Amino acid sequence: MKSSILSLVRGVVTITVRGESLEGFVNELSRQGIGVWDVKPLSEGRMDMKLPLADFFRLRPLLKRTGCRMRVRHRSGLPFMWAKMWKRKGFIIGFALFLTAVIGLSSLVWDVEVKGNELIPVEDVLQVAKQEGVYPFQWIFRLPEQDKLSASMTRKLPGASWVGVTRSGTRITIQLVESTRPKEQALRNPHHLVSKYDAVITHIYAEKGQPEVGKNDRVKKGQVLVSGIQGGKAVVSKAEIRGLVWHEYKIEVPLVYKQKVYTGDRKQRGYLYFGKTAVQLTGYGKVPFIQAETLTEMDPLTWRSFQLPIGWMSEKILETAEMELKRTDEQAQQQGIERVKRDILAKYGVDSVILNQKILHEKTENGKVYMKVHFEVEQNIAEEVPIVQDQGE
Which residue among 245, 286, 338, 347 is least packed, with the fewest CB closer than 10 Å? Predict the structure, then answer.
């Protein structure tokens, strides 16, 4: 008899029989209609064979009659697998409950996100979405069709010309396109444009107002560049004025500095997270590092196109140390100048142009490089000054 899928479903037992009357035992099996297969004679009066689990319990009287003994070598088939699983029924039930919970949680809306709104408050959008049945912990299968939902929300949201609703896993994204509104022009009082610095004019273009200076003119701080009195009337001056300005900086750069480096030693921790709650499963113990930096990586569980609010979070704790490094005088000088250049652009505008630089004084003392540097910068030099009119006029 050959092994079949049916016999595996019913269960198969592999036994070793030993005794002086093995032939008689085989004959008894044949007379009783017990089918065996894979019969293999062995040394020392032994024999291996396979038989169905249902016939296994019929062997005892046959063994007694023939004076043989048997030993079970292997069990296979569905009945034995079920018996093993039943011993672990707690784990199986827990896994089934976990799988049920995952499928259930993946069928809920966990987050509603609003994008594209500038004038319409997020609270108003979420309120309208809730009226339409879109809110956290709502069943996904109960959500309205996206085209109908978009049209309804567009009608209910004043100031919105279009509302798009999309779903990615358990997250709903509401994308707004607001109606175009004319920009409200702020009322501005008439004013002059005066110079903020001592400078030499490199460019001047007056859109409104009366120009008082021209290109290449040297001006003082506070001097009127474009007058707000034009044709006997006070106007709001508007102009683009750039000029050469000289700035003097005192720079101090240490020759020895500290820098953070990674030593290569690390410790890892693993967490199972659910929403905003995380349970540590691996990497227990204190961190053995005095100085360290932690890097966190999230690996959410996904099912098809759904990203579930549970997953694995790993933390890598990297040991760091501070190293003392040295600069040459030239490197310190260059770094100090570059630092001041960044400061000039941040302070006077990114459209400022550094045309020239000159080191007026330099010395090395007490482990530091001291410099006094003169910078020539082309920048915007105009600022507004209100026109004070006589109340008696």
Answer: 286
Residues 6+ positions from 59 with CB-CB distance below 8 Å: 15, 34, 51, 70
pLDDT tens over the chain, length 393 residues: 444 666 667 788 888 888 888 888 888 888 888 888 888 888 877 888 888 887 888 888 888 888 888 888 888 887 777 777 777 777 777 778 888 877 777 788 888 899 988 888 899 999 999 998 988 888 888 888 888 888 888 888 888 888 988 888 788 899 998 887 666 666 678 899 999 999 999 999 999 999 999 999 999 999 999 998 988 888 989 999 999 999 999 999 999 998 889 999 999 999 988 877 888 999 888 888 999 999 999 888 877 666 778 889 999 999 999 998 999 999 999 999 999 999 999 999 999 999 999 999 999 999 999 999 999 999 999 999 998 765 444
Neighbours of 343 (CB within 10 A): 12
**Greatest pairwise CA separation for the chain in angstroms:** 139
Strand order in the sheet with 37-42: 37-42, 46-52, 12-18, 69-76
Domain stops at, among 123, 143, 178: 178
For residues 71 and 18, membership in a common domain is answered with yes
Q: Residue 37, class by beta-carbon neighbours within 10 Å (0-12 exposed, 13-18 middle, 19+ buried)?
A: middle
Domain membership of residue 155 (yes or no) is yes
DSSP letters, 8-65, are HHH-EEEEEEESS-HHHHHHHHHHTT---EEEEEETTTEEEEEEEHHHHTT-HHHHHH
Alpha-carbon span 59 to 13, nearest angstrom = 12
* Bridge-based pairing state of the strands 111-115 and 171-178: parallel
Determine, yes or no, domain membership for 358: yes
Q: Looking at residue 63, which CATH number applies to its domain? A: 3.30.70.260
Q: Is residue 287 part of a domain?
A: yes
Same domain (yes/no): 273, 333: no
Stated pTM of the model? 0.48
Q: Is residue 38 part of a domain?
A: yes
Dist CA 54 CA 20 (whole Å) = 26
Q: Which two tokens stand for residue 249?
A: 């900086």
Nearest residue to 172 via CA among 114, 127, 132: 114
Domain interval for residue 320: 257-325
Residues 41 and 12 in one domain: yes
Total tally of structural domains belonging to the chain = 4
